[in-house]
Input
Amino acid sequence: MAETCVRVRVGTEQYAFPVRHVPEVAEMGDITPVPGAPPQVMGIRNLRGEVLAVFDLAAGLGAQGSGSPERIILADVDGRRCALAVDEVLEVAELGEPEEAVESPFLLGAVLLDGRLVGLVDVPALLQAIAPAESR
Amino acid sequence: MSLDPELLEIFRQETEERLDRMIDTLLAVEAGTAADDAIDQLFRDAHSIKGNAGMVGFDVASKVAGALEDILERARAADALDPALTAPLLRAADAIRASAVDGQDGPAASAMTELAALETVASAEPPAADEEPAEPVADAPAAAPAPTASAAAPTRTLRVAADRVDRLLDAVGETVLHRRRLEHLLGPSVLEADQRLREEIDRGDVLLEDLQDAVVRMRTLPLASIVGAFPRAVRDIASTAGREVRLELSGVETQLDRVILDGISETIVHLLRNAVSHGIEPPDERLAAGKPREGTIELSAQGRGDRVAVTVADDGRGVPAALIAQAEREGSLVDVLARAGFSTAEKVDELSGRGVGLDAVKRHVESLGGALDVWSRPGEGTAVTLLLPLTLSLLHLLLFERGGQTFGLPLASVLEAVTAHDVSSLGGRGSIELRGESVGLSDLAAVVGAAAPALPESPPAVVVASSTQRVALMVDAVTGEQETVVKPLGAMLSGVPGYLGAAILADGRAALVLDPSYVARAGATRRGAPAVATPAVAPATEPPRLLVVDDQFTVRELQRSILESAGYPVETAKDGQEALERLRRGGIDLVLSDLEMPIMNGLELLAAVRAEAELGSLPFVIVTSRGSEEDRQRGAEAGADAYVVKGEFDQQALLDTVRRLAVLR
Output
């Protein structure tokens, strides 16, 4: 069952996010660094009155990013939201079933597209790891 | 059968209200303080619950309510309710709540059995007419004056879903931001040039302020709205602990922000539990000390300017004299008590009992922008006070810059802004004199851990006060004031200490709002000094090698960075199995582990470590988001050496624990 996904580029690698978990993409904008936060958290950003934490996706997935991402995608899992920094947003389109298996806790699999592997991201797993739901 | 969720929600809310009222009434009847129509009211509530539950399909709850109704009908006919029935009836109410509200039918079965047994007894012995207590029974385990609605004319109320009020508040907040952006875009020259424009903008300010005030006040609720469960809780805890305790409530009409109220409910129960179990003495001990058999705990609330003080006070044995003496030396009873109750190395004893969980309470209150205070006199009693901000929604902030970044602090926590000259230095730390007292200086950059160029000569300093501590925070420049909504930073940053949230500035950027208690505490320790971070371990010996075990990537990395910058070599593992394999290879001196992990969890890892001869006495710290007392007990029983709660832990607590235990290796 093909799913509509947002396909992004992180360095030389490509990843896909199901659109139901990505309500928006935006420019990087003004990021306020948060001293004391882990290095993978680039900072916080104001998006129309909402304060979002911005996470460097390259660091999260273990990919080699450009070092200066220019776009953010908004990740939303059951109302828990954060921004993921990427180098480029390529397109929003249907992606086939992930046929290739991948060894990563954050990927559901990989799709072969025009001769390259595109990792299909398990957004709930990623968000649970970097922005866990409170148990309170 | 699918039921309209809104209907279900209404049913749940109404049932909860009825159950709460029934519980209050049952306690009042037991204490002899109930109104004349109490039994009638109980019957009517049971009857309504039975009917409604049946209607929406909650048959189990309906059956239990029906059994309750039968017993209450007989009581109504006899115009008397045997106090001995109170406990089983309370349990039946709990079972109904479990079934109808939480969806758990388990407790209902035993409740039904109990009620069935009572029915046979009740029908055999109708309660005698003179059993009605003429005055409050002195030996009742707990007697609480039920917080009933006053007899005065009821004010009109409207039931509105909470998130609608929140959305309204958000919309008002957005409007304020919009106004500020408008002013920013117009610029001072345009505004000055056009008189009518200026007047209209000013009028807009007043209108908006009124609107803000009105909406903010909608978010407040009286403390009374959460105290409903407390008399019952105190009664149950007292009866388990073998104490006789009376709970008194005062000032419960005091208003607090709804979010803060939600946040302190559990905390108050915890303080009440501590007061009953470790504060109030057993009845015989009290008599021997010349006190009344029954101990008194008072829960009171009082407005203090822009703060509200919520106090749990008892007339029990007070804090051990040894701790008071220590507090006098160190300056803060709260800190001494919290530390005493923190370690799980020894079982909970007299010394640590009163402070159990106090560190978590303190951090939680501080995360709400408040403070904790403790007063105690051995033999007389103890009072724990939560000092809470009136509202979280809108804070008046002071804005300043450091290292090219704007930060804010709640104006309420700022004593004044001064210039730091005539600095005297002692032990590498600077301080200035402020009206005859010495106040320590700290570089804001050092406090939060930001990289920044050197401060200017005689820099401006913001004097921050929190509880009993003060610090003068040096900054590059003070830039202004702003009243604004402070937004939470979100789950990703919940483990990072020192911030209340973020504020949106006029130019649209987000600015971090500092937590005044964190800043004041940091200022009191050496951390505020603008010096290179020195390793926490003497350089002569090799620092202990640590293993951090957690299935969450950011948590592992956060702990790693805290520990590595203190000079410890750190390795990580993402579950218990991986950790155990690494530990078996040797070379690790201390383990910091989460509880919830796949494959092998923290407790299983701990058990495995303690079972192996080579690893048996390895210092083991549990670092987890679960901070309940049962979790601590389990950790202590399994052999953990200490327990740090994630999300509330700050760097210093983690480092102190590691330093203390690393010595044991």
Q: What stands out?
A: Residues 124-153, 343-347, 526-540 of chain B have pLDDT under 50 and may be disordered. The first helix of chain B runs from residue 5 to 31. DSSP finds 22 helices and 23 strands in chain B.
